[in-house]
Each structure stands twice: as C-alpha cells, then as structure tokens.
Design goal:
Helix content is about 45%, strand content about 15%. With about 400 residues, it is an alpha/beta fold. The chain starts with a strand and ends in a 5-residue tail after the last helix.
C-alpha cells in the first residue's frame, strides 16, 4: 500500500510513547509498504533524522517552533480551539501536506494525534485514520478532580470543553480511529457513535532476561517528568506513600527516572531516600537495578508503557487502578493493584521483603508482556487496521 503518515515530531530517539509508537509502526511497514511521512521538526539532530529517513520512501520535514508561554495559553482561552491545536498550527505544514496529497495517490492516510487532525480532516477521496492513542478529553476531566487554584481550574475546565467538542466534531469525519485502551474508546464512542474504533495496544522490546546487581530495598518510577500525570505520580508517591514504606524499611530508596523533571519533581531530591536521576541512556537497563517498580498514577489516559517496560525486565509492579488502565494483566498474579496510600505501601513492603515473591511476579509479568504487548503484536494490529480501512471505497 501507499501510506501517508502525518507526524507531530521526528520519531527518533523513541524517548516517549508517541515517538515509540510511530517509530515501531515505521519499522513494521518498511518492507512491504510505500510510506511517505510529513513531520514537524524542531531542532532535530541530523543523525536522528537519518534513522527515520531510512524507514520511509519519502520524509518531508517542516520546521516548527512550539511556544508555550503563559501569555499564549491565556490568549487561547478566548478562542474555540484547544490550546494544543493552536500550538501545532502551521501554514507551512498545511501546505506541505497538501503538496504530498496532490503529488501522489495514497491508499490510506494516517492523520496522527488530536493536534494534527487539522491537517487531514478535510481529506475526502482517500480513506483516513485518526490515531490519537488516547482520549484527551478524559485527561482533562481527570485533571479537574485534583485540588487546583482557581486559574488552573478554569483553564482545565475550558480545555475539557474545547477538547471534547473538537473530538466530537473532528473524529467523526474520519473512517476509523485507533486507540490503545478500552476506557478511552468508551469516551470516543459516546462522542462519535458509529465511528469504527480499532485497538493497537502499545508494545515494548523484550531484552534478554539476565541477572544484574540489584540495590537492596530500591523502588523505581519512570517517565517523561514534565508530563503532568507523571510528575503528579512521582510527587504523590514521595509525599504520601514512600514515608509509609520507610516506617517499615528505613533504608528504602525511591528513584525517579526520566528526562525533563519539573520543579516539583526536582525538589523531591531534598527528601531523604529519594533520588531524581533525570534522563538516563537506557531506562530498562536503569530499572534492572531496582527491586520493585511502582506506577502510582492518578491522572492521564490511555495505556502506560512504563508498566510494560518494567515487566519486560522481570520487575514486580505495584500500580494504581488508573495506572493499569489499558493493560490486560491479571492482578494478584502478574502485578499488584492498590489505590490507597497504606494499601500501596504495604504491597511495596511485602515485595521488598520477599525475594521469592518478587521473582514470581517478575516471571509472570514478563510472560504476560511477551504474550500480548510486544512491538511485533502492535505491528500486526496496525497491518490489519490499515488493510481494513484502505478497503473503504471513497466515491
């Protein structure tokens, strides 16, 4: 097939879920399909661009500067558009997409995430897919459940209304929507009855399962730390759960692993027993050295790839219910679920004290990932989706 993919960034290196999903889709499609990608670029290294260029027939890059100043956010409150849609708006990018569509006939168009829909929603004679991965309106709805100052509450409320309207009015004009989690699908189905929804759960690589030196009584959490749900989870665990763990195991340590830590995350390093690593060369290799992985998420939407990465290296995982959304794992056998601070802390302490139990959960968790959540499985799902949508007859 001839496929046009619209991307909000150059998907290399795969330092977040959006990049990882796009990169592994390109790797899957490279051998059997003719792929053109039009992507935004913001200071990407030539060697990173070269990696992506080798995976596609044609790569069109459009320079775009992302300006997230408070004044721009304030100005966006007086428009009907979500802030993210305005942030990604570019006349040059729109023209590049139009040129690609005029130059070649494609069998299917993959329109990228919610903020990129503005560039393909008007495409009429080619089957098109919107691939937001998660329901962004659900993200803002959950933000509203936190204690916020009046200005932040008003901003989130307006974004929730705007995003919900945008999802409803935009997605229904596509031939299909691709998501990674069923809770998000419930939201989109309510907004867009009749829209075909497909699932392509995120994946991970399975590195060789080998023994390494592990730090006793060590706990880890990972993610991009300027993403508000990740920052909230790190702060929540450090403030509300970790002290309860230290009451039982005073020598316990908590590692916050991930690039771009926000101010409140960096401040956690001042707490006894907490270390904020910042960006590391290889997250999985870093996680191998801890004993227990935690996913204390209270916000966000979609699937949390961080759980897959931890289980892929045979780490036992304790997660909140929200952190485990989107993964079809067996609680109590493949991972542990706890939502209250004392319950969560007790589960962590139990694992820290029992080597055999850690090994058992690590073994079952890795098998669960191998069964359903590899990039190979993700690629197969996308192949089936593309074939089904390309078969849609337009005019």
């Amino acid at each position: 097939m001839r496929i046009l993919i619209i991307a909000s960034e150059v998907p290399y290196p795969p330092t977040d879920s959006n990049r990882a999903v796009t990169l592994n889709l390109l790797r899957r499609l490279r051998d059997n399909h003719d792929v053109t990608m039009v992507a935004m670029s913001s200071g990407d290294a030539p060697e990173d661009i070269a990696v992506v260029r080798d995976l596609v027939e044609e790569l069109v890059l459009v320079e775009h500067t992302f300006t997230k100043t408070p004044w721009r956010r304030l100005g966006s409150m007086f428009t009907i558009w979500p802030f993210g849609v305005l942030l990604y708006r570019s006349r040059s990018f729109a023209e590049a997409v139009e040129r690609a569509l005029r130059r070649r006939k494609f069998d299917v168009v993959v329109g990228g995430h919610i903020n990129m829909a503005q560039y393909t929603v008007e495409v009429e004679r080619t089957p098109k897919i919107i691939a937001p991965l998660d329901a962004v309106s659900l993200y803002y709805k959950r933000q509203l459940g936190l204690p916020l100052n009046p200005a932040a509450f008003l901003y989130c409320l307006l974004q929730y209304w705007k995003v919900r309207r945008y999802e409803r009015e935009t997605y229904r004009r596509y031939d299909a929507c691709v998501l990674v989690a069923r809770r998000d699908a419930e939201v989109i189905r309510e907004l867009c009855p009749g829209l075909p929804i497909y699932f392509a759960p995120s994946g991970t690589d399975l590195p060789p399962d080998r023994e390494v030196a592990v730090e006793p009584y060590s706990i880890g959490f990972s993610g991009v730390m300027d993403y508000p749900p990740n920052a909230d989870a790190a702060v929540y665990f450090a403030h509300d759960i970790f002290p309860l763990v230290r009451e039982e195991i005073p020598e316990a340590k908590f590692y916050v692993v991930g690039k771009n830590p926000r101010g409140e995350v960096r401040a956690l390093a001042r707490r006894e027993g907490v270390e904020v690593t910042g960006e590391v060369p290889d997250v999985k290799e870093n996680l191998r050295r801890i004993q227990v992985y935690v996913c204390p998420m209270r916000l966000g939407a979609g699937m949390k790839m961080k759980i897959l990465e931890a289980m892929a290296v045979s780490l036992p995982v304790v997660s909140t219910t929200r952190g485990a959304e989107g993964v079809d794992f067996v609680a109590g056998r493949e991972f542990l679920v706890a939502d209250e601070p004392r319950e969560f802390a007790a589960a962590v302490v139990r694992l820290l004290r029992d080597e055999d139990l850690r090994a058992e959960f690590g073994r079952w968790g890795r098998q669960a990932v191998a069964r359903s959540y590899t990039w190979e499985a993700h690629g197969r799902a996308w192949e089936e989706i593309l074939a089904a949508v390309a078969a849609v007859k337009k005019y």
